[in-house]
Amino acid sequence: MNETDVAVVGGGLAGLSAALQAARLGRRCTVFTGPTPGGLLVGIESIQGLPGHPDGIAGYDLGPMTQEAAMDAGVECITADADKLGREGAQWIVSSAEGSVKSGAVIVACGGHLRTLGIPGEDRLFGKGVSHCASCDAPLLRNRPVAVVGGGDAACQEALTLAAHASEVHLLVRGSALRAQKFWRDRVAAQRKIAVRYGVTVGEVVGDSAVTAVRLAGGQQVPVDALFVYAGLVPNTAFLAATVQLDAGGFIGVDAAMRASAPGLLGAGYARAGGSGQAAGAAADGIAAAFSAHQYLESGRWPAPAASSNL
């Protein structure tokens, strides 16, 4: 079993930023990136709000760039998902299908996965019109009608990506307003191809060998050739439940320094409670977690959680 100072679980922006910072602090660091460095970001056409990128940057560029920077700093990458976390004395053991690592500190930045609707036709027609990646599939839908489910940043951003190709985009919102940042709301409002429909719920995806329509809960059928689902995320923390204190939503409780309940354990990015859900926030979380891990390894002390923590 290999030994390291800091093990990082997750290859998204939070995890890779944590690994890069830990290496710059002189720590041996191993990161479990999973098969796709960058995580969900690789499917985003333009990530906004990152300093140094005023016009945004594609996720499929940012993920590999950040991983390359981490590896140049000396980080070891394991291209498998961590599937178990345990303790052996004062050390942590992180396991995966490609081997295990023993470390003094662990930063859990395992991100999340897209929530499904759980409706008839969704699973059967996945890859046949049902999709989670507008940047992947939008060019295949030129001059064809599509629908997007969701009202947050991701749904608005993907609707805008689709509008550059599709004939029309139905943005289907369960609530009475968009939850996205004003930045995205304004752009959706300015895009004439996007029709926002509020207070609607999709009840079924219609089609035999491919999507032909979506049926709303009230029975109305909307003819579309594709459905893109952005109805929120679920944290990838199920494998931690036996060893890590999680809140009701499955998120890791941390304090302001990203420290979790157990000594040497930290959370960052979407997997931690109270996160911003933004790329810039994920990177900041990772950096903060790396500094806290470094301080813990230097002192051997784990301060008591602050009263205002999410633990």
3D structure, described in words:
It is a single chain. The chain has helices spanning 13-24, 59-72, 134-137, 153-163, 182-190, 279-299, and strands at residues 2-9, 29-32, 76-78, 82-88, 91-96, 99-108, 112-114, 130-131, 145-149, 168-173, 194-198, 202-206, 213-216, 221-223, 227-229, 233-235, 265-267. 23% of the residues lie in helices and 26% in strands.
- Uncertain spans, ≥5 residues at pLDDT below 50? none
Give the topology string: H per helix, E per strand: EHEHEEEEEEHEHEHEEEEEEEH
State the end-to-end distance. 31 Å
Number of helices: 6
- Topology, number of strands: 17
Radius of gyration: 21 Å
How much strand?
25-35%
Helicity level: 10-25%
Q: What would the principal axes of the Cα set say about the shape?
A: elongated
Largest beta-sheet details? 7 strands, mixed
Structural class: alpha/beta
Let me know the average pLDDT: 92
